[in-house]
Request: fold
Amino acid sequence: MGLFKGEAEIAAPPSPQTGMTIAAFVLAIVSICIAVAALIITIINTVRITRLNRRMSNHDCSNSSTPVINPSTTTSSSNKHRTIFHPSTKPPYYACIFTSVQNKSVPKALDGYSTLANEMEELAKQQNGYMGIDSVRGITISYWESSDSMREWKEQVDHRAAQLLGKERFYNDYHVHIAKVEREYALKKQQ
Reply:
């Protein structure tokens, strides 16, 4: 049937077994694609972390005049506080509160920390929705116009690499709190 010109071709419907085989094949291909994508992301992050490590190992922090963003290792007499955030936007806006305990077990573990923190601050300033930052002794608060802009910052590629490096090298413990700021008030004394 259907071998000669002009004859109607009649195709047999696919068997249920063929349908299952095709579905299993498609699922296997999708799984392989996901695995390859995850491998590529891992390789990219490994390269970025290696570059950050190399940059930090080449940087002598003892001679650096760069301020420390998260100085949890300072003593109370030399407590550094830095406030950059002065809202130009009325609430609501969002705050990412990052509290940390730095790794003090290996003295070299903190080499390069302030350099990386400053690089991340400069990179954050370039992100959509970034409003500012406050930081003091192991607490850093970044402010964002929306939760979406905060989420985009969390997923930014260089920031992701810095997060991985922080987990591996800089922090013994950290906590992240996300908050919606609905009200604010301040005191500014004349000097």
